[in-house]
Amino acid sequence: MFPVQRPRRLRQTETLRTLVRESRISTDQLIYPIFVRPGQGVKEPISSMPGIFQWSVDTLTDHLTEVFSLGVHSFLFFGIPSHKDSQGSEAYSPDGIVQVALEAVKERLPKAVLIADLCLCEYTDHGHCGILRDNDVDNDMTIELLARTAVVQARAGATVVAPSDMMDGRVKHIRQALDQSGLTQVPIMSYAAKYASGFYGPFRDAAENAPTFGDRRAYQMDPANRYEAIKEVLLDLEEGADMLIVKPAMPYLDILAEVKKSVNVPVAAYQVSGEYSMIKAAAQRGWVEEERVVEESLIGIRRAGADMIITYFAPEYARWHSGK
Ligand code: PBG
């Protein structure tokens, strides 16, 4: 009888569909980004990212304790400092906001994986990801400060450091600095293929890091480039990266698939602020079903090759799946 092959046979019931499902997501693979600022009792909504807040160390610690209990065990730290300057000095000050938060969260949740985003843009008064010379980010001066920041973050309790600046040679420099400080066990998760993307828009409200002039196209990647992503990831691996990040996620699934095929280290994809806010905004208007499109966006990222997903939806996803 025609046809012999009937793919619909395996789609008949949810149990059967679950049995033959090719990709799955576990909350263990999700990384939840958080924003911490000075103060006490702070839970400041970010208007362009409904459901996401800036926290102070005390409220953050409580919030992450709850998220941890839902099964999300890894967190990515961003800081909003009390003071910004041309050198981004609060990034590498031992009492900088992220360092204080890392210490507190580590004490409360010793088993959590605490990933410190490593960049100067939240800490510089001009909002660029490094130190300026003649209105341009000076690569080699910047990586000195990044290396210093990595050591301070690791000493404060970061399990992993994650450079997101896109300077050349920074992974090598950071590895050397960590090793020289006896921090040989601290892995580097490098934002290796990070594109100059409009999808970071809402993050600029959340982290208060918009550049005061120009943009980041002279250091982040051109969205049109695919082969260059492989060049970037291979360079970072050669320099000592332990894990890689592709960012953003949804408009770059081809890059993710290609990167995953080209390397033998764990690969993360970052579902960035704009991806989050677009889904939230459409769901608020009733134009899409939130839970369904979040699931679909995350499974698409997994299917394309991500071992880990950095997503602002992590706590919600975990709540939907834990029945809490
Ligand atoms: C900082 C940094 C940015 C993001 C993560 N780290 C902003 C940028 O590069 O402009 C964006 C994350 C998001 O949009 O969710 N270097």
Largest sheet at a glance? Answer: 10 strands, mixed
Can you write the helix and strand succession as a string? Answer: HEEEHEHEEEHEHEHHEHEHHEH
Distinct ligands, ions and cofactors found in the model:
ligand PBG
Query: Could you say what the CATH architecture of one domain is?
Result: Alpha-Beta Barrel
> CATH class of one domain, anyone?
Alpha Beta
Q: Spans of 5+ residues with little confidence (pLDDT < 50)? A: none
Helix content: 25-40%
Task: Compute the CA-based radius of gyration.
Answer: 20 Å
Describe this structure in words.
By secondary structure, the chain is an alpha/beta fold. It has a domain of 224 residues: TIM Barrel, CATH 3.20.20.70. The chain contains eleven helices and twelve strands. It is globular, with a radius of gyration of 20 Å. The mean pLDDT is 97. The site of ligand PBG has 11 residues, from loops.
